[in-house]
Amino acid sequence: MENYNQTSTDFILLGLFLPSRIGLLLFILIVLIFLMALFGNLSMILLIFLDTHLHTPMYFLLSQLSLIDLSYISTIVPKMASDFLHGNKSISFIGCGIQSFFFLALGGAEALLLASMAYDRYIAVCFPLHYLIRMSKRVCVLMITGSWIIGSINACAHTVYILHIPYCQSRAINHFFCDVPAMVTLACTDTWVYEGTVFLSTTIFLVFPFIGISCSYGRVLLAVYRMKSAEGRKKAYLTCSTHLTVVTFYYAPFVYTYLRPRSLRSPTEDKVLAVFYTILTPIIYSLRNKEVMGALTRVSQRLCSVKM
Protein backbone atom coordinates (compact mmCIF):
# COMPACT_ATOMS: atom_id res chain seq x y z
CA MET A 1 0.00 0.00 0.00
CA GLU A 2 1.24 3.45 -0.88
CA ASN A 3 2.23 5.87 1.85
CA TYR A 4 0.07 8.95 2.13
CA ASN A 5 0.26 12.01 4.30
CA GLN A 6 -2.24 11.38 7.08
CA THR A 7 -2.00 14.82 8.75
CA SER A 8 -4.97 16.04 6.67
CA THR A 9 -8.60 15.28 7.51
CA ASP A 10 -9.11 14.20 3.88
CA PHE A 11 -9.68 10.56 3.01
CA ILE A 12 -7.65 8.69 0.40
CA LEU A 13 -9.44 6.44 -2.10
CA LEU A 14 -7.01 3.71 -3.12
CA GLY A 15 -9.01 3.02 -6.28
CA LEU A 16 -10.15 0.01 -8.27
CA PHE A 17 -6.87 -0.76 -10.04
CA LEU A 18 -3.22 0.32 -10.07
CA PRO A 19 -1.83 2.69 -12.75
CA SER A 20 -0.49 0.11 -15.22
CA ARG A 21 -1.15 -0.99 -18.80
CA ILE A 22 -3.86 -3.42 -17.67
CA GLY A 23 -5.23 -0.73 -15.35
CA LEU A 24 -5.42 1.69 -18.28
CA LEU A 25 -7.35 -0.84 -20.39
CA LEU A 26 -9.79 -1.48 -17.54
CA PHE A 27 -10.15 2.27 -17.03
CA ILE A 28 -11.00 2.78 -20.72
CA LEU A 29 -13.54 -0.07 -20.55
CA ILE A 30 -15.24 1.46 -17.50
CA VAL A 31 -15.36 4.90 -19.13
CA LEU A 32 -16.97 3.35 -22.23
CA ILE A 33 -19.55 1.57 -20.04
CA PHE A 34 -20.19 4.87 -18.24
CA LEU A 35 -20.79 6.69 -21.54
CA MET A 36 -23.10 3.90 -22.73
CA ALA A 37 -25.07 4.07 -19.47
CA LEU A 38 -25.21 7.86 -19.70
CA PHE A 39 -26.51 7.80 -23.28
CA GLY A 40 -28.83 4.84 -22.74
CA ASN A 41 -30.51 6.14 -19.60
CA LEU A 42 -30.82 9.72 -20.89
CA SER A 43 -32.36 8.36 -24.10
CA MET A 44 -34.76 6.20 -22.10
CA ILE A 45 -35.94 9.14 -19.98
CA LEU A 46 -36.39 11.42 -23.02
CA LEU A 47 -38.19 8.77 -25.08
CA ILE A 48 -40.63 7.94 -22.28
CA PHE A 49 -41.29 11.66 -21.80
CA LEU A 50 -41.77 12.42 -25.51
CA ASP A 51 -43.70 9.36 -26.70
CA THR A 52 -47.30 9.11 -25.47
CA HIS A 53 -47.39 5.35 -26.23
CA LEU A 54 -44.98 4.89 -23.30
CA HIS A 55 -47.05 6.87 -20.79
CA THR A 56 -47.95 3.73 -18.84
CA PRO A 57 -47.20 2.67 -15.23
CA MET A 58 -44.46 0.27 -16.33
CA TYR A 59 -42.56 2.92 -18.29
CA PHE A 60 -43.21 5.58 -15.66
CA LEU A 61 -41.41 3.33 -13.15
CA LEU A 62 -38.74 2.53 -15.74
CA SER A 63 -38.06 6.24 -16.32
CA GLN A 64 -37.45 6.64 -12.60
CA LEU A 65 -35.13 3.63 -12.61
CA SER A 66 -33.18 5.23 -15.47
CA LEU A 67 -32.97 8.49 -13.51
CA ILE A 68 -31.67 6.66 -10.44
CA ASP A 69 -29.15 4.65 -12.50
CA LEU A 70 -27.98 7.83 -14.24
CA SER A 71 -27.45 9.57 -10.89
CA TYR A 72 -25.98 6.41 -9.33
CA ILE A 73 -23.20 5.89 -11.87
CA SER A 74 -22.51 9.65 -12.02
CA THR A 75 -21.91 9.65 -8.25
CA ILE A 76 -19.10 7.09 -8.57
CA VAL A 77 -17.39 7.00 -11.97
CA PRO A 78 -16.42 10.67 -12.61
CA LYS A 79 -14.52 10.90 -9.29
CA MET A 80 -12.88 7.53 -9.90
CA ALA A 81 -11.84 8.59 -13.42
CA SER A 82 -10.46 11.91 -12.16
CA ASP A 83 -8.42 10.12 -9.48
CA PHE A 84 -6.95 7.72 -12.03
CA LEU A 85 -6.07 10.42 -14.59
CA HIS A 86 -4.63 13.00 -12.19
CA GLY A 87 -3.22 10.70 -9.53
CA ASN A 88 -4.90 12.78 -6.81
CA LYS A 89 -6.77 10.18 -4.78
CA SER A 90 -7.84 12.44 -1.91
CA ILE A 91 -11.43 13.32 -1.14
CA SER A 92 -12.48 15.80 1.53
CA PHE A 93 -14.20 14.66 4.70
CA ILE A 94 -17.45 16.41 3.69
CA GLY A 95 -17.07 15.26 0.07
CA CYS A 96 -16.82 11.66 1.25
CA GLY A 97 -19.95 12.10 3.35
CA ILE A 98 -21.85 13.58 0.40
CA GLN A 99 -20.78 10.77 -1.94
CA SER A 100 -21.70 8.17 0.67
CA PHE A 101 -25.12 9.78 1.22
CA PHE A 102 -26.02 9.83 -2.48
CA PHE A 103 -24.72 6.29 -2.98
CA LEU A 104 -26.85 4.96 -0.11
CA ALA A 105 -29.93 7.05 -0.95
CA LEU A 106 -29.90 6.05 -4.61
CA GLY A 107 -29.07 2.44 -3.75
CA GLY A 108 -31.96 2.17 -1.30
CA ALA A 109 -34.36 3.89 -3.70
CA GLU A 110 -33.37 1.54 -6.53
CA ALA A 111 -33.82 -1.56 -4.36
CA LEU A 112 -37.36 -0.50 -3.44
CA LEU A 113 -38.17 0.63 -6.99
CA LEU A 114 -37.12 -2.75 -8.41
CA ALA A 115 -39.57 -4.38 -5.99
CA SER A 116 -42.29 -1.96 -7.20
CA MET A 117 -41.53 -2.90 -10.82
CA ALA A 118 -41.85 -6.58 -9.95
CA TYR A 119 -45.26 -5.86 -8.38
CA ASP A 120 -46.25 -3.98 -11.55
CA ARG A 121 -45.40 -7.00 -13.74
CA TYR A 122 -47.17 -9.33 -11.30
CA ILE A 123 -50.41 -7.32 -11.54
CA ALA A 124 -50.08 -6.88 -15.33
CA VAL A 125 -49.69 -10.62 -15.99
CA CYS A 126 -51.74 -12.21 -13.21
CA PHE A 127 -54.56 -9.62 -12.87
CA PRO A 128 -54.70 -7.81 -16.25
CA LEU A 129 -58.33 -6.68 -15.79
CA HIS A 130 -57.47 -4.97 -12.48
CA TYR A 131 -54.20 -3.45 -13.75
CA LEU A 132 -55.36 0.16 -14.28
CA ILE A 133 -57.02 0.18 -10.83
CA ARG A 134 -54.18 -1.39 -8.85
CA MET A 135 -51.46 0.48 -10.76
CA SER A 136 -53.11 3.89 -11.02
CA LYS A 137 -51.08 7.06 -11.40
CA ARG A 138 -51.55 7.78 -7.68
CA VAL A 139 -50.17 4.35 -6.74
CA CYS A 140 -47.15 4.84 -9.03
CA VAL A 141 -46.40 8.25 -7.54
CA LEU A 142 -46.67 6.83 -4.01
CA MET A 143 -44.28 3.98 -4.91
CA ILE A 144 -41.73 6.36 -6.40
CA THR A 145 -41.86 9.05 -3.71
CA GLY A 146 -41.83 6.36 -1.02
CA SER A 147 -38.70 4.79 -2.54
CA TRP A 148 -36.87 8.15 -2.67
CA ILE A 149 -37.91 9.27 0.83
CA ILE A 150 -37.20 5.95 2.60
CA GLY A 151 -33.87 5.59 0.78
CA SER A 152 -32.88 9.15 1.75
CA ILE A 153 -33.82 8.68 5.43
CA ASN A 154 -31.77 5.47 5.61
CA ALA A 155 -28.81 7.17 3.87
CA CYS A 156 -28.99 10.16 6.20
CA ALA A 157 -28.83 7.94 9.30
CA HIS A 158 -25.76 6.03 8.05
CA THR A 159 -24.00 9.15 6.78
CA VAL A 160 -24.43 11.01 10.08
CA TYR A 161 -22.91 8.05 11.91
CA ILE A 162 -19.85 7.64 9.69
CA LEU A 163 -19.14 11.39 9.84
CA HIS A 164 -19.17 11.38 13.64
CA ILE A 165 -17.12 8.30 14.53
CA PRO A 166 -13.42 8.84 15.41
CA TYR A 167 -10.98 7.64 12.74
CA CYS A 168 -7.49 6.33 13.33
CA GLN A 169 -4.34 7.84 11.81
CA SER A 170 -4.81 6.02 8.51
CA ARG A 171 -7.51 7.53 6.31
CA ALA A 172 -6.79 5.36 3.27
CA ILE A 173 -10.09 3.78 2.15
CA ASN A 174 -9.37 0.56 0.27
CA HIS A 175 -12.13 1.19 -2.29
CA PHE A 176 -12.91 3.34 -5.34
CA PHE A 177 -15.66 5.32 -3.53
CA CYS A 178 -16.68 6.12 0.04
CA ASP A 179 -18.33 2.81 0.87
CA VAL A 180 -19.60 2.44 4.44
CA PRO A 181 -18.09 -1.02 5.23
CA ALA A 182 -14.68 0.12 3.94
CA MET A 183 -14.86 3.32 6.04
CA VAL A 184 -15.93 1.51 9.22
CA THR A 185 -12.71 -0.55 9.16
CA LEU A 186 -10.77 2.70 9.77
CA ALA A 187 -12.68 3.57 12.95
CA CYS A 188 -10.86 3.82 16.29
CA THR A 189 -13.87 2.63 18.23
CA ASP A 190 -15.89 -0.56 18.54
CA THR A 191 -18.52 -0.52 15.79
CA TRP A 192 -20.27 -3.85 16.38
CA VAL A 193 -23.58 -2.14 17.26
CA TYR A 194 -23.46 -0.08 14.08
CA GLU A 195 -22.57 -3.17 12.02
CA GLY A 196 -25.76 -4.68 13.42
CA THR A 197 -27.74 -1.72 12.06
CA VAL A 198 -26.07 -2.21 8.66
CA PHE A 199 -27.18 -5.84 8.76
CA LEU A 200 -30.73 -4.74 9.68
CA SER A 201 -31.02 -2.10 6.93
CA THR A 202 -29.55 -4.51 4.36
CA THR A 203 -32.21 -7.05 5.33
CA ILE A 204 -34.99 -4.44 5.03
CA PHE A 205 -33.78 -2.88 1.76
CA LEU A 206 -32.42 -5.94 -0.01
CA VAL A 207 -33.42 -9.30 1.48
CA PHE A 208 -37.14 -8.60 2.01
CA PRO A 209 -37.61 -6.93 -1.42
CA PHE A 210 -35.69 -9.78 -3.06
CA ILE A 211 -38.01 -12.33 -1.43
CA GLY A 212 -40.99 -10.30 -2.65
CA ILE A 213 -39.57 -10.10 -6.18
CA SER A 214 -38.89 -13.84 -6.21
CA CYS A 215 -42.46 -14.63 -5.13
CA SER A 216 -43.90 -12.18 -7.68
CA TYR A 217 -41.90 -13.64 -10.55
CA GLY A 218 -42.66 -17.17 -9.46
CA ARG A 219 -46.36 -16.36 -9.97
CA VAL A 220 -45.63 -14.41 -13.17
CA LEU A 221 -43.61 -17.21 -14.79
CA LEU A 222 -46.30 -19.72 -13.88
CA ALA A 223 -48.95 -17.49 -15.49
CA VAL A 224 -46.76 -16.93 -18.57
CA TYR A 225 -46.23 -20.68 -18.95
CA ARG A 226 -50.01 -21.14 -19.10
CA MET A 227 -50.48 -18.48 -21.80
CA LYS A 228 -51.88 -19.75 -25.12
CA SER A 229 -50.42 -16.90 -27.19
CA ALA A 230 -46.83 -17.61 -28.23
CA GLU A 231 -46.26 -13.90 -29.00
CA GLY A 232 -47.60 -12.84 -25.60
CA ARG A 233 -45.48 -15.47 -23.89
CA LYS A 234 -42.35 -14.29 -25.72
CA LYS A 235 -43.01 -10.64 -24.85
CA ALA A 236 -43.62 -11.46 -21.18
CA TYR A 237 -40.48 -13.62 -20.97
CA LEU A 238 -38.37 -10.84 -22.53
CA THR A 239 -39.64 -8.21 -20.09
CA CYS A 240 -39.23 -10.53 -17.09
CA SER A 241 -35.76 -11.75 -18.11
CA THR A 242 -34.46 -8.18 -18.42
CA HIS A 243 -35.81 -7.25 -15.00
CA LEU A 244 -34.52 -10.45 -13.38
CA THR A 245 -31.05 -9.80 -14.86
CA VAL A 246 -31.02 -6.33 -13.29
CA VAL A 247 -32.23 -7.76 -9.97
CA THR A 248 -29.53 -10.46 -9.98
CA PHE A 249 -26.70 -8.06 -10.89
CA TYR A 250 -27.90 -5.59 -8.26
CA TYR A 251 -29.10 -7.59 -5.26
CA ALA A 252 -26.71 -10.56 -5.20
CA PRO A 253 -23.38 -8.66 -4.92
CA PHE A 254 -24.94 -6.04 -2.63
CA VAL A 255 -26.30 -8.64 -0.21
CA TYR A 256 -23.09 -10.68 -0.27
CA THR A 257 -21.00 -7.58 0.50
CA TYR A 258 -23.14 -6.03 3.22
CA LEU A 259 -24.32 -9.14 5.09
CA ARG A 260 -20.88 -10.68 5.59
CA PRO A 261 -19.13 -10.14 8.93
CA ARG A 262 -16.06 -7.89 8.78
CA SER A 263 -13.73 -10.84 9.47
CA LEU A 264 -14.84 -12.54 6.22
CA ARG A 265 -14.52 -9.48 3.96
CA SER A 266 -11.82 -9.03 1.36
CA PRO A 267 -11.22 -5.47 0.06
CA THR A 268 -10.36 -6.75 -3.42
CA GLU A 269 -13.47 -8.93 -3.55
CA ASP A 270 -15.66 -6.06 -2.29
CA LYS A 271 -14.36 -3.75 -5.03
CA VAL A 272 -14.97 -6.30 -7.78
CA LEU A 273 -18.51 -6.97 -6.51
CA ALA A 274 -19.19 -3.23 -6.28
CA VAL A 275 -18.50 -2.92 -10.02
CA PHE A 276 -21.65 -4.99 -10.68
CA TYR A 277 -24.11 -2.83 -8.74
CA THR A 278 -22.50 0.57 -9.39
CA ILE A 279 -21.27 0.36 -13.01
CA LEU A 280 -22.71 -2.65 -14.88
CA THR A 281 -26.34 -2.62 -13.68
CA PRO A 282 -27.18 0.87 -15.10
CA ILE A 283 -26.63 -0.28 -18.72
CA ILE A 284 -28.83 -3.40 -18.74
CA TYR A 285 -32.25 -1.79 -19.28
CA SER A 286 -30.98 0.83 -21.75
CA LEU A 287 -32.84 0.40 -25.03
CA ARG A 288 -33.42 -3.36 -24.51
CA ASN A 289 -37.08 -3.21 -25.40
CA LYS A 290 -39.00 -3.37 -28.69
CA GLU A 291 -41.51 -0.74 -27.57
CA VAL A 292 -38.68 1.64 -26.64
CA MET A 293 -37.02 1.04 -30.01
CA GLY A 294 -40.38 1.70 -31.68
CA ALA A 295 -40.67 4.94 -29.70
CA LEU A 296 -37.17 5.89 -30.84
CA THR A 297 -38.24 5.42 -34.46
CA ARG A 298 -41.43 7.47 -33.97
CA VAL A 299 -39.63 10.33 -32.23
CA SER A 300 -36.90 10.34 -34.91
CA GLN A 301 -39.51 10.50 -37.67
CA ARG A 302 -41.31 13.30 -35.85
CA LEU A 303 -38.11 15.32 -35.50
CA CYS A 304 -37.25 14.77 -39.20
CA SER A 305 -40.74 15.93 -40.28
CA VAL A 306 -40.41 19.07 -38.12
CA LYS A 307 -37.04 19.91 -39.72
CA MET A 308 -38.49 19.42 -43.23
Automatic annotation (TrEMBL):
User: Which InterPro entries does the annotation name?
Assistant: GPCR_Rhodpsn, GPCR_Rhodpsn_7TM, Olfact_rcpt
A Pfam family of this chain: 7tm_4
Q: What's the protein's topology in the membrane?
A: Multi-pass membrane protein
What subcellular locations does the record give? Cell membrane
Domain G-protein coupled receptors family 1 profile residues, every copy: 40-259
Entry keyword annotation includes Hydrolase: no
Q: Which segment of the chain is annotated as a signal peptide?
A: none
Tell me which Gene3D superfamilies the record gives.
Rhodopsin 7-helix transmembrane proteins
The organism's superkingdom is given as: Eukaryota
Which is one GO molecular function term here? G protein-coupled receptor activity
Please give the start and end residues of each transmembrane region.
22-50, 57-77, 97-119, 139-163, 199-224, 236-259, 271-288
Q: Which family does it belong to?
A: Belongs to the G-protein coupled receptor 1 family.
What job does this protein perform?
Answer: Odorant receptor.
Q: What name goes with this protein?
A: Olfactory receptor
Q: Name the source organism.
A: Theropithecus gelada
